[in-house]
Predict the structure.
Amino acid sequence: MPLYLDEHKKIPGLTAGALAQAHAADLAVQGKYGVSYYRYWYDEATGKVFCLAEAPSAEAAAAVHREAHGLVADVITEVKEGA
C-alpha cells in the first residue's frame, strides 16, 4: 500500500497537546478508510505539521483528517521509503 507524507503549512495556534489530540482522533477513525497514520512532526513556532500515513489513496488519507478534526493538509505527496 502506498505511503503518503502530508504537509499542513500553517495551523494557527498549534500546540503539542492539541496536535496529540488531533493525531488520536485520526487513529480513532482511520480504519474506516483503510488508512494507518504512523507518525507526525511539527514546529510550534511556524505552525507547520507533517504526517506520515499508509493509505489506499491520497483522498483516503485526507478523508481521515477531514472527519477526525477538519485539519486537512495543504499538500499530500506519495513517497517511497529509502535506506
Observations:
- Residues 3-79 form a domain with the Alpha-Beta Plaits fold (CATH 3.30.70.3090).
